[in-house]
Write a structure and sequence with these properties.
The structure holds two protein chains of two kinds. Chain A is mainly β. Helix content of chain A is 0%, strand content 50%. Chain A has no helices and eleven strands. Chain A has strands spanning 4-7, 10-13, 19-25, 31-37, 43-51, 54-57, 64-66, 76-78, 87-94, 104-106, 110-114. In chain A, the strands form two sheets. In chain A, strands 2, 4, 5, 6, 9, 10 and 11 form a seven-stranded mixed β-sheet that branches. Chain A has a four-stranded antiparallel β-sheet with strand order 1-3-8-7, with no helix packed on it. By secondary structure, chain B is mainly beta. Chain B contains no helices and twelve strands. The N and C termini of chain B lie far apart (41 Å). Classes of the chains: A mainly beta, B mainly beta. Chain A binds chain B through residues 31, 33, 35, 40-45, 48, 50, 56, 58, 90, 92, 94, 96, 99-109, and chain B through 4, 32, 34, 36, 42-46, 49, 51-52, 89, 93, 95, 97-105.
Chain lengths: 115, 112
């Protein structure tokens, strides 16, 4: 079982470049989400999805786009990279059960540096 | 909006000491509550969870009880080990938005 797979693990971008962080899960989970982790600030929600074709914004969506064309994949696009987007990015997925019992599984993260 | 507040770290303990990491939350509905752990250089792992008031989550000797009256979900362990050194995150998921809201994390350092 691969779980949640994120690629790449490390990336350096120049200011203004664009790129896509990939996220794939093989657990048939309905929910997927993207977070960024910055020192002293915990994890902040960027975008999330409750199913294929459905996405919504989180706390810090500016500068990022997402789409969910399949259940398995949830890529995060940086449109024009800025130094403020230097962070560690985590993708996560979760199943749904009656009664509110959720289980979020996280990927191993992508460390992005924008210079 | 929803929010989670954790005690600031780092928390430094000797091996076999008792651990408490405080967590309080604000939410409009009836959230599910979680503790996640992050070991150095790794992603987040679910440590334990509770989905309704008075539920107790437990795993690997760690426990937390969902206290609706005090809006708290404090993490406890009776005897910590060096291998417990990590960053611990308290989080909630409300009944509307199916994504997690995290606290800022508490770094635990256990010395031999």
């Amino acid at each position: 079982n691969a779980g949640v797979t994120q690629t790449p693990k490390f990336q350096v971008l120049k200011t203004g470049q664009s790129m896509t962080l990939q996220c794939a899960q093989d657990m048939n989970h309905e929910y997927m989400s993207w977070y960024r982790q910055d020192p002293g600030m915990g994890l902040r929600l960027i975008h999330y999805s409750v199913g294929a074709g459905i996405t919504d914004q989180g706390e810090v969506p500016n500068g990022y786009n997402v789409s969910r064309s399949t259940t398995e994949d949830f890529p995060l696009r940086l449109l024009s990279a800025a130094p403020s987007q230097t962070s560690v990015y985590f993708c996560a997925s979760s199943y749904v059960r009656t009664g509110g019992s959720y289980g979020y599984t996280f990927g191993s993260g992508t460390r992005l540096t924008v210079v | 909006g929803d929010s989670v507040t954790q005690m600031e770290g780092p928390v430094t303990l000797s091996e076999e000491a008792f651990l408490t990491i405080n967590c309080t939350y604000t939410a409009t509905g009836y959230p599910s509550l979680f503790w996640y752990v992050q070991y150095p250089g790794e992603g987040l792992q679910l440590l334990l969870k509770a989905t309704k008031a008075d539920d107790k989550g437990s795993n690997k000797g760690f426990e937390a009880t969902y206290r609706k009256e005090t809006t708290s979900f404090h993490l406890e362990k009776g005897s910590v080990q060096v291998s417990d050194s990590a960053v611990y995150f308290c989080a909630l998921m409300d009944t509307g938005r199916r994504a997690l809201t995290f606290g800022s994390g508490t770094r635990l350092q256990v010395q031999p």
